[in-house]
């Protein structure tokens, strides 16, 4: 299951999760303005929403991919397009000198903050697209349910690392200053990695 190819895709998954977006910027803004505990509550809510989509995608794709091999190819190319879109988005950010806001803080009780975090992922169509695409990329077209759930565990561990890590990192003023100074270089790195990953997935020969 864990091959050099999977490790490369897992790293791309980490970078996709860590690139600027509603979830990561929401965690950053909340951790910066409301403190580490609030940032962690928001991050855990996002992780809960992500888990719901990840398990749902595994359960659905397990049956669909076995019955219709062509679905595997369709979802794979959707994943390629998604990675390409992320590469262009990161490149566009890197080419501008405008300051990128680190998101608006989420306020309220810890339960409210957690719920708002879960709602972000549960109402985000890109979340289910991301999970469906990554399964189609990393799993063989005859993948069993147990195999897909195994991939879920490995990928979800990466999501936990990114989202919870953001809550810790962005509750530190030093990290915020470092990110702002090096933002453009981060975005250039994101663009290059996403572009290469998209090309590799597009040209790989499936058995």
- Poorly predicted runs are none
Average pLDDT number = 79
Number of strands: 0
Shape: globular
Strand content: under 5%
**Can you summarize the main beta sheet?**
none
Please state the CA-atom Rg, rounded to the nearest Å.
17 Å
Helicity level: over 70%
SSE order? HHHHHHHH
Distance between the termini: 15 Å
Report the total helices: 8
Structural class: mainly alpha
Subcellular location: Cell membrane
Membrane topology: Multi-pass membrane protein
Organism: Ruegeria haliotis
Keywords: Cell membrane, Membrane, Transmembrane, Transmembrane helix
Question: What is the fold's blueprint, element by element?
Answer:
Elements (H helix, E strand, L loop, with lengths): L3 H15 L3 H13 L1 H32 L1 H26 L15 H13 L2 H14 L6 H25 L3 H31 L4
Helix pairs in contact: 1-7, 1-8, 2-3, 2-7, 3-4, 3-5, 3-6, 3-7, 4-6, 4-8
Main location: membrane
Keywords: Cell membrane, Membrane, Transmembrane, Transmembrane helix
Protein name: LysE family translocator
Question: What can you see in these coordinates?
Answer:
The chain is mostly helical. Helices cover about 80% and strands about 0% of the residues. The longest helix has about 30 residues, at about 35-65. It is globular. The relative contact order is 0.22.
Keywords for this entry:
207 residues, 8 helices, 82% helix, mainly alpha
Task: Sum this structure up briefly.
With 207 residues, this protein is mainly alpha-helical. Helix content is 82%, strand content 0%.
């Amino acid at each position: 299951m864990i091959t050099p190819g999977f490790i490369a895709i897992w790293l791309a998954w980490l970078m996709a999760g860590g690139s600027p977006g509603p979830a990561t910027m929401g965690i950053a803004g909340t951790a910066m303005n409301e403190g580490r505990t609030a940032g962690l509550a928001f991050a855990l809510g996002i992780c809960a929403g992500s888990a719901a989509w990840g398990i749902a995608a595994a359960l659905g794709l397990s049956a669909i991919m076995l019955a219709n091999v062509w679905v595997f190819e369709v979802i794979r190319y959707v994943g390629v397009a998604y990675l390409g879109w992320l590469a262009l988005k990161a490149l566009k950010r890197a080419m501008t000198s405008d300051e990128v806001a680190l998101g608006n803080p989420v306020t309220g009780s810890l339960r409210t903050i957690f719920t708002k975090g879960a709602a972000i992922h549960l109402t985000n169509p890109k979340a289910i697209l991301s999970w469906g695409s990554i399964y189609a990329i990393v799993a063989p077209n005859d993948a069993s349910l147990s195999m897909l759930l195994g991939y879920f565990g490995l990928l979800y561990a990466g999501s936990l690392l990114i989202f919870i890590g953001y809550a810790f990192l962005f509750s530190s003023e030093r990290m915020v200053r470092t990110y702002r100074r090096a933002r453009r270089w981060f975005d250039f790195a994101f663009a290059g990695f996403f572009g290469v990953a998209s090309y590799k997935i597009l040209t790989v020969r499936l058995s």
